[in-house]
Amino acid sequence: MPRNKDNVDLICDIAERAGLFEKSSSLENFLDTVIRIIAWHMKAAVCSIYLYEEDQNEIVLRATQGLKSEAVGNIRLKLGEGLTGLVLKELRPIREARSSQNPNFKRFPYLEEQPYEAFLAVPILRGLNRIGVLVVQDPQPDYFDDNDLKALRAIAAQLATTIESAKLLMDIHDLQLRQGEADAVPVEVEALQLVRGKCACDGIALGKSSVIGRNVEASLEAFENDPAPRTLDDFYQALKETEGQLTELQKELESELSDVASLIFSAHLLILKDAEFSGRIIKTIEQGTPPQKAVAQVVKHYINLFKATSNPNLREKVQDMQDLGHRLLMNLMVHDPSQADYAGRILIAEDLLPSVLLKLATQKAAGLVHIGGNLTSHVSILANSLQIPTVLVDEPRLLEIGEDRAVLLDADQGNVFIDPSDEVLNHYRALLETSPQDREGTPDIREQTVTRDGRRIVLQANINILSELRMVDRMKAEGIGLYRSEFPFIVRNDFPSEEEQYRVYRKIFEHMAGKPVTLRTLDVGGDKFLSYARNLKETNPFLGLRAIRFSLRNRSIFIQQIKAMLRAGEGHRLRIMFPMISSLDDFIAARDVVLESRQQLEQEGIAHHPHPELGIMIELPSAIEMIDDLAPVVRFISIGTNDLVQYVLAVDRTNEFIADLYQPHHPAVLRAMDRIVQAAERHQLEVSVCGDMAADPHMAPVLIGLGIQTLSLNPRSIPGIQPVITDVTFEEVRDKTQQALRMNRVGEIESLLGIPARGEHG
Ligand code: PEP
Ligand code: MG
């Protein structure tokens, strides 16, 4: 058997190609190039790529070397049909020495030059999403070996993101064929002056409005009717400038926010470079339409197509398209790159995706008004991590105020002023002229937190993204009590590999230099969905495939994450925490994954931490019932009060209609917490709180009164909470807490703790 295949070169070549796709003009050429390289290096007679079409549940041959070219677009297999269909159905590679002997083998004799016996195929996956199948075949039986399999797998992994982008373009092209132009819907603009809401991230900002999502055409129309003379050359120039700016933004994002940054602007670039998009504009200009009108028309056409489709991947691209159109027109008409961004603007949005928020933050938006959002929802948490002043309001009419209205955002108070009067502006002038850092001043924080009678309380930080490490230092947090590892997964539009995760976790350990760090495993589901695992539709996502349930069902993703954590924790004190544990079985299953991951690393000879401390979050009533069984086997517990309150009281933490029923001080919650702390004391188990209750000045003393000595909270809340603790004695808060535990009415507890009564339930 000829063994002069050069698979290592092949992987390098492909890695380079994947990067080159962004620059290539045609998707078909790209796929053809890829399979030619693979066939050449593997010395295989046939190499083909099949892509998965979700709506049809079929895979379609999209490029081939070796099979007749008529086969492209025509060979269609149901999921599970033939060996190739089986690979994608069962998500596993298949290697056959003599494929004709496998009963699943499906032959298309009219397309083959000769029978190809050796068969090797691997699934192309991005995270959980099926992208397609990569197949090599050869007439010589038993031609492919283990190394070929490994190489093909590595290539499929590298190509997944690129191919998914390519697929997106194909979907766009298909959509163009299937649908006609839709008419823009005119919107009414109402006069609003002051809207009150809730603060999700404090700060004060003044800027012009930009409405994200709705009314997208309005911003294009101003340009469309501009009579300024522009030429085709001007359009080419604008195209070039736009590409340069987007590439620059992506670079900036990668240096500032490396953990969540990957390919955030890829859809913009992809559409921009798509010959069909620019070709359409060029053709319209050549037919005599002014360039600005041509751009606006084509962009609107795409927006309408995306809006109308049932494909969620494409619907999400509406905002990207709006952004791209605005940028192109700015470069064509105004030649001021700073205005092409959302720099200094106040964004008004509804249903914002985390990745969109990140894009807007990179473009230095000054503030955000989020309609219908909730404080503990992931978009609010992210806005806070990114430090964008954000107000949550319940006023959909704001979406219709249009572009370029003056908006003053007082996120400290939760006020949004539209076209503020001189009187309002004068009132805020001094604050607006001070930079956010100066406004905050240097917080006066002690290194250690001690109650008046000498009880030591440890204040640690909850963080979501790496850039918050600066805040951890500034606020003198004594460690990281909760790293929410899901943020790189939910913000990015691709799936972080083991290596990428490793680098993120490693940075945390290195930064914290010996202070304790608790890494929580993936807590997706609920309102934290992975945009690329959207086929998971649940009626009650908070009661669904969430957190540890998701990880245990997706074992390979879980193993990847644990391996990354074990590797990153090498030489450090490594604490791994599992979210939403409901039973001893959940914990044991998760622990088994740690053992398996460790074994794999041992076999691979990769340095790692062999004995991490394993802990769990207590968030479910079932975990409280099981606490005496869980306590002996775990090293620590942390009470996730955000979820505990939600599950004990059956109040959706993201539902603003019942926000008044979400009562952390409810007697049932306090008694449940007391049971947890009592059990921890019985078993001499370390217990902390990492939910928002720790950052609530009314509730933090109660937690201390219950006997908790470690609180993990948003680092920005430390300056507010530390004085509350240093002001009290343990004895007095313990007595007060005991009193509260004896009460059975919410109102009584509210009066005792000085909590303003909420609604009629107080
Ligand atoms: C909690 O539930 O209290 C918690 C800290 O986890 P998350 O807010 O990420 O669900
Ligand atoms: Mg939780």
Number of domains: 4
Q: Compute the number of strand runs.
A: 23
- Per CATH, which architecture of the largest domain? 3-Layer(bba) Sandwich
Class inferred from helices and paired strands: alpha/beta
Rounded average pLDDT: 85
Number of helices: 30
Q: Tell me the span between the first and last alpha carbons.
A: 81 Å
Low-confidence stretches: 180-190
Q: How would you characterize the largest beta sheet?
A: 8 strands, mixed
CA radius of gyration is 28 Å
What is the third-level CATH name, the topology of the largest domain?
Glucose Oxidase, domain 1
CATH superfamily of the largest domain: Phosphohistidine domain
How does this model look, in words?
The structure is a single chain. The chain has 762 residues and is α/β, with parallel strands linked by helices. The protein has 4 domains: 9-174, GAF domain (Beta-Lactamase); 194-435, 3-Layer(bba) Sandwich (Glucose Oxidase, domain 1), CATH 3.50.30.10; 485-616, Phosphoenolpyruvate-binding domains (TIM Barrel); 619-753, TIM Barrel, CATH 3.20.20. β13 (406-410) and β14 form a beta hairpin. α9 runs antiparallel to α11 and α20 (547-553) crosses α22 (584-604). The protein is globular and about 85 Å long. Phosphoenolpyruvate (PEP) is lined by residues 482, 484, 523, 619, 640-643, 690-691.
